[in-house]
Design a protein that fits this description.
This protein has 140 residues and is an alpha+beta fold. It contains seven helices and four strands, in the order βααβααβααβα. GO terms for molecular function: kinase activity.
Length: 140
């Protein structure tokens, strides 16, 4: 299996509760390595651009409001089959459906405030990483 990269966001509900370290620990224990990380306050423009794929969906405005409501931690993760590995440790989008021991089952407050975002494909991972990081910021 090849070592690949994926993108992760620790969302405002998790940073507000000081869970950055706990979430990162779960990612690392799942075999992922943080090769770039920064804590930012996402601007409205960034949120709208990042979630543009959802622009026509009814939750788009609320999603952008939520993602700009507090600091987030954007990360590049590396590991074997990183996208799948990250999605497995994140758990289902709805924490009620997430498996025990996953980030969302452990820390999510709701389906909206579900603590983490992760890329859903290698192609999207590359786009999402490039949205927030310059290549020289990835130093794994």
């Amino acid at each position: 299996m090849a070592v690949t990269r994926t993108f992760s966001i620790i969302k405002p509900d998790a940073t507000r509760r000081n869970l950055t370290g706990a979430v990162t620990k779960m990612l690392e224990e799942a075999g992922l390595r943080v090769v770039a990380s920064k804590r930012i306050k996402m601007t409205r423009e960034q949120a709208e651009g990042f979630y543009e794929v959802h622009k026509e969906r009814p939750f788009y405005g609320e999603l952008c409001d939520f993602m700009t409501s507090g600091p987030v931690v954007v990360q590049v993760l590396e590991g074997e089959d990183a996208v799948k590995r990250n999605r497995d440790i994140m758990g289902a989008t709805n924490p009620d459906d997430a498996d025990e021991g996953t980030i969302r089952k452990t820390y999510a407050e709701s389906i909206e405030a579900n603590s983490v975002h992760g890329s859903d494909s290698d192609e999207n991972a590359a786009k999402e990483i490039a949205f927030f990081f310059d290549e020289d910021e990835i130093v794994g």
